[in-house]
Amino acid sequence: MRLKTRVTNKISTKLISFLPILKSSVDELYEEIKEISKENPFIEVKNKKFITVSNLKNAITDEIEVLSTSKKTLYEDLIEQIENSNLFPTQKSKRIAYEILNDISREGFFEGNEKQIAKKLKVEEQKVKKIRERFIYLNPAGVGAKDIKECMLFQLFNLQISSGVFNLAKSMIEDLENIHKYNDSAYYKKAVKIIKQLKVMPAMEYVNSQEIIPEIIILNINGNLEIRLNDEHYPEIIIKDCDLTDEFCKNKTKEARNLVDALELRKSTLKKIALMIVEFQYEFFMDGVIKPMKIKDLADELEYAPSTISRAIANKYLLCNKGIVPLKSFFSTALDEDVSAAQIKEEIKNIIQNEDKKRPLSDDKITNIINEKYNLKLVRRTISKYRDALEIPTSRERKKIYKVNE
User: CA–CA separation, 198 vs 44, rounded Å?
Assistant: First the structure.
């Protein structure tokens, strides 16, 4: 167990100077390294041609079929529907719908905060929720959902199926992690068939129309899954020769080598993540159903810190026979209690240390800040519990303390 801890710490220490490299998408990598090279005269960076969705056919011939593209952008289509649909008959409902639209990612998921939208527009939060629920009837199906499960439920509500199949499919989607426990039901096979047809990403066809560069490529070749990384198309780093007896030159050469090591570490980290995703999601890649994973489980398996895994999957895409899928789509949105406690407590301390001493932040406001930053769904009582554990007074008590200190 001690050895396991040492490995994790060693990896985290090595990555700490180059976290932007790990977090960058593959198409941002060149610019990130180029920026670093400006401070190092002994680094030369050469860009290479990436495998993108648009040129993938040439790269791997007929091994994978790229989905058809759309001429209109996702936002153009949604604006047109909001304007012309009877779902938003008043200016008030349209205004809320457009505010929701501002928080929809290019993958089609809602990444905003309904409470904050309500506060901004001075309407009830329930009104915002009801307007977002009307996105169920917009195209592409599933747009405006918060996560994979809700995306599937949005699509399910639009299908013309019997109540028995609908109810079972709904229960199975809400409990995707344990989907096989429903196999005794008479409607099980029909429900599974329906779920398999549902998209895991609402705007998949729109994303495919853009120059998305997949980080990982999963090919199903005659029933065998093959993993390919887009690593051979990473920027090439050339370290120039210099006089190593010179201290400046010696330090800059070491930085350059560390940069090369960071790139290699990025590749190996993503390769391991790809292998684990294929292992956990084997059924999905074999035309089955996706099963939400926990970042903690993957981190424990790979002996990495959860924060390292979070950075590694950020802004990364996987290409398979079902199209483009963001890596984050394979993971449940809520952090596990064991994973989040230390991180969230540290964040609470940082927020309170930097708060306005005249207007200390309430637990509600701290909850909103953390949920927005980490894309979580924590409730106020969780934040209050962590704050109490840190022995930090309430906002009202802190205000009194600040006044006394003044």
Answer: 46
pTM of this structure: 0.61
Q: Which pairs from 377-381 meet CB under 8 Å and 24+ separation?
A: 377/333, 377/334, 378/340, 378/344
How high is the pLDDT of residue 122? 93
Take residue 70 and report the two structure tokens written for it.
Answer: 């759309």
In the chain, CATH 1.10.10.60 covers 337-405
Token representation of residue 170: 């709904």
User: Candidates 2.40.50.140, 1.10.10.60, 3.40.980.10, 3.40.50.2300; correct CATH number of 337-405?
Assistant: 1.10.10.60
Please, what sign has the CA dihedral across residues 67, 72, 75, 80?
Answer: negative
pLDDT over 80 at 372, yes or no = no
Helical (H) or strand (E) element with 272: helix 247-280
Tokens 């409607």 correspond to: 187
Which letter does DSSP use for residue 110 in this model? Answer: B
20: cis peptide before it, omega within 30°?
no
Summarised one tens digit per residue, pLDDT across range 388-401 is 888 899 998 998 88
d(CA 132, CA 86): 14
* Torsion angle of C-alpha atoms 182, 185, 189, 190, degrees rounded to 10: -110
pLDDT per residue as tens digits for the range 308-321: 788 788 888 888 88
Give per-residue pLDDT as tens, 22-74: 788 777 788 888 888 888 888 888 876 555 554 544 444 343 344 334 457 88
Which H or E run includes 289? none
